[in-house]
Amino acid sequence: MVSPTDFFAALKQQDIGPFVGVPCSLINSLIAYATDHPNEVDHVNPVHESHAMAYAAGTYMATGKLPMVYMQNSGFGNIINPLTSLHQIYDIPAILLVTWRAEKGYGTDAPEHWIVGRDMEKYFDTFCLPYRIMHDADWAAQIKELADEARATKKPTVLCVKKGMFEPYTMQAKETSVSVLESMDVLRALKDSLPNAAFLSTTGMLSRESFTAKDTPDFYMMGSMGLISGIAAGCAEHTKKLVVALDGDGAAMMHMGQMPFIGNKKYKNLLHIVLDNAAYSSTGGQPSVAPTVDFAAVARACGYHSAETITTQQELDAALSGVSHLSGPVLWHIKVRATHHHDIARVSDKYTCPDVTQNFSQILTS
Ligand SMILES: Cc1ncc(C[n+]2csc(CCOP(=O)(O)OP(=O)(O)O)c2C)c(N)n1
């Protein structure tokens, strides 16, 4: 296993940086170390993998430096556009650190990784990306080769990282969430107060927490990070039921562009809730940029009927007491504590993805 200290020392030796991307649990020790050592590692955390590619392109043109863009293989799909229509045609190099969840393919790891995990190497070939699968023995030489090739060709190259490559490192940085509310309590209260609503929850810790707090026939999304409010919009258009989209701060920011659409369409039966723990909890609790975002103000500016920020039990109780008269689209920005209970059940322990679709469709159409 490689220590984060050695890894970043090797990047420094090859003059590679900044280290920019969206987290994956397979590299949480690298991100934690980078977060704790801002003077040693130039680390930047945009909200979407394509934004990381864009930032890297800007950095290269401004400095000539060779950035490393990190992402989970789930996020590889998010970079195809800037990869092929920015970096590769404008001669803008970078090293892409792509993690490899579900490297053993179908039926291994969580279901959202099966299809992309099965074919990683084919994707690298298809997109003309020279790559190395990181090896314990010669990883530093691999990084040098990838850097040399990226610089010589002015095109991106890939360091593909499997599970267990990096030594653990525990982040020292303090919790940035200011709330006293616990997400599991909030979720239970929401589900108890809204027994007839159709709930959808985002990938991340939220679907697992919602399922554990109260197992109702919801659309528990395990992949497609950030798309829950868009799916909820499609439901709200076609049902009279109250549709509740449970979003995470990281997920909501990843596809915030759905909010102007929801505001424009004025779905009266849509309640969009952002449970904001100021972190990417499910990939290791890396801080997100949510503390500087006023989600309620964004929602109002996008045309939601109303929006509020909730940080206390009293505010939550008050919001829930008026929920039967709700006229949407409404956004509640609920700030919750960043708790990292990784021992809780996974939805996939009980339901397959098609089960989830079927159960939820029945609720929507009943
Ligand atoms: C496109 C994409 N990028 C990255 C990931 C890896 N990932 C899964 S959950 C998650 C964090 C989600 O954070 P947030 O929405 O704040 O929810 P939390 O886990 O804190 O509940 C990340 C980065 C992913 N699944 N898909």
Would you mind describing this structure in some detail?
- With 366 residues, the chain is of the alpha/beta class.
- The chain contains 15 helices and 14 strands.
- The strands form 3 sheets. It has a 6-stranded parallel β-sheet with strand order 2-1-3-4-6-5, with helices on both faces. A 6-stranded parallel β-sheet has the order 8-7-9-10-14-13, with helices on both faces.
- β13, α14 (313-321) and β14 form a beta-alpha-beta unit.
- The longest helix has 15 residues, at 49-63.
- The chain is elongated and about 60 Å long.
- Thiamine diphosphate (TPP) binds next to α9, α11 and β11.
What small molecules does this complex bind? thiamine diphosphate
Largest sheet: 6 strands, parallel
Walk across the major sheet and give the strand order. 2-1-3-4-6-5
Give Rg in angstroms.
21 Å
What is the overall pLDDT average?
95
Low-confidence stretches: none
In DSSP terms (H or I, runs of 4 or more residues), the helix count works out at 15
What is the count of distinct domains?
2
Tell me, what is the CATH class of the largest domain? Alpha Beta
The end-to-end distance, rounded to whole angstroms, is 53 Å
Helix content: 25-40%
